[in-house]
Fold this sequence. Notes:
Strand content: 5-15%
Distance between the termini: 69 Å
Helix content: 40-55%
Structural class: alpha/beta
Number of strands: 18
Radius of gyration: 30 Å
Low-confidence stretches: 482-486, 728-738
Largest sheet: 9 strands, parallel
Amino acid sequence: MTLDLLYLSEDEAVGIATVLRSRSLGDMMEAAEAMTVAAHGRRVTYSRKVFIPLTKLCRDVCHYCTFATTPARAGDAYLGRDEVLAIARAGAAAGCREALFTLGDRPEARYAAAREALSGLGHDSTLSYLAEMAELVFRETGLLPHLNPGLMIGEDYAQLRPHAASMGIMLESSSDRLCARGGPHFGSPDKTPALRLAAIEQAGRARVPFTTGLLIGIGETRDEQVEALVAIRDLNRRYGHIQEVIIQNFRAKPGTRMADHAEPSLDDHLWSIAAARIILGPQMTIQAPPNLHDRVDLAPLIRAGVNDWGGVSPVTPDHVNPEAPWPHLEILEDATKAAGRILMQRLAIGPRYALAARDWAAPAIATQILRAIDGRGLPKVDEWSAGHGDPAPDTMVMEPVLASRSILSILDAAEEGERLSEADIVTLFDAEQDDFAAIVERADRLRRQAVGDMLTYAVNRNINYTNICLYKCGFCAFSKGSTKAMRGPAYRLDMEEVGRRAAEAWDRGATEVCLQGGIHPDYDGHTYLNVLKTVREAAPDIHIHAFSPLEVTHGARTLALPLEDYLARLKEAGLSTLPGTAAEILDPEVRAIICPDKVTADEWIEVMRVAHGVGLRSTATIMFGHVEEYKHWARHLLRIRGLQEETGGFTEFVPLPFVHMESPIWRKGLARSGPSYREAVLMHAVARIALHPVIPNIQVSWVKMGPEGAAAILKAGANDMGGTLMDESITRAAGGVNGQEFGPREMQALAASVGRPVRQRTTLYEPVLPRRAVLAEPS
């Protein structure tokens, strides 16, 4: 491995060019491929889009271009509103997600016909009309606009940014020499490198996710290519806005002044791609248009550092290269597979920028982006949502598979009981296709090793004694302010009702009551002690599973007691175990967004550590699919594992998919629409793998997943089906549609659907006394 190529330290373009000239193409490609795989894994992306050629008039006369034309040949100077909308609607119907607006650079500066046409359209500039059309397409079709209008200044970006997910301009070259007489850019003032670099810089200042790139083979030298790439790199270091860099090969076109100009060879293109990867670094997205090479040449492009094919349209041609039709997606997928990679769709905005859409897009655009993506920043490929009652997609491939060596190595280490790294766990969460199937299969195997084939469930009742809460967690649709009733009335159960519900649960065969509620402004540490006293008197033998770490912390603080003392008092008053709720995501980056005033990740861990120390066991949870990324999931799992290795106090791990429908943070456009089905399956499977063998029980929530989804997850590492609940209000408040009770008969049917035995358990996974089991059976 030519490691020196992976970490070029020279800041001067001439120094980098000297290093690259000393290396073979093979060495460069080897280094570039290693960098690409390290950052992007096996994924190669493309955008399914339509091309909208708003105008083919342009004030420039590039000598290789067949896109730009004259008013006499153009017919109408601009597409009309109905024409634009017709193209966009055809794209939306074909499954496109992006509308790429291509157009010449300010043709009104050159042609009276353009000025007259704009006047008739009610505009004084092409950019003004472009803004209207982008807004129209987004509003009417939901396609995300990507705009390529040429040179712009800060005011122009400000005008267009509210209506675009991303924008772009090709640098093409940083060589002034190509603008001289006889050069390809002579007579094209907008191709002056300094002006184009200034436009790219202004995009960075405007916080616009930006696409740029090189056009190679038009007469530049390799040293000049390096100079241009270094200029792009430096701008991106300053502003962080370059979402992708296109390395496009020149194609000679009949009817142009460069019709007889030699085209770059495949090796030339491979060299330029590898140089771009090495200079721009592993995280950059490097794109090469797939329609400008023969099919057999596509796999080498990937091995040189390409991780994106750009836009591919099932509806419209490539208007810039009309002689080169887009390859069918099946061909593109086969070529990608031939390079050992997986083809996946992306949005007009790159994945890293999509995840941070509130920082990189206008509010309306950002909301749509967030609601479309998964935890990688890629579009969700299924229509399933947690708690929504959707049928489970058929993504469970359980046949023998050929997984990648990297995945198998991680799985083997986990099976040996090794603690996986954050990077290992993220790699598992990022898995697709064969790797996905291998993870599911291994999780099921580890489940079998840890607990056998027996499925379990508990007969229990939820008692949420108040939904009035002092805290303002962005994801919570259950809590209400003390005076304002939203999505149902605010309530507070009195102690008599709490006791009645506990006694009724015992009479119906429950072995457990789970008690949690909002942090009512009148509650203090005595409140929780009184709850325990009430339940213990009403149902002396029932297991009391109660109080999240937030409630414990609140109770201890209001009585000015150390955690250890207060937890000891709770235990003495009848508390049996603690639920692991309020964990959400145990990472400060995420909690600062979704629950900034709640217990911190460290405080949650400390409550559980102290509880385990006084002899109280607990569950652990994760609530996922809102604003976090896979790295946060990995950190959460590692924190849970770390505490379990220290205390052994967790009885089970419970993934809780975010139910988004009525969540305040989602309704404000600040969060994703819950996890994808693939992510929900992987969360359970990866949890089994990452927590093996220290936490034996992985629970699936039928409330969140629905019976069909729960059945699939019981074949992906889960062994417990949770509780019958009798009453469920938190998920339903968030818009969940699954029932409030899932009784023993339903539990038994769910187990039968996956061909597994089932038994009722206690909260601590012990056998249920015969009389309680009989009472729990449906009459």
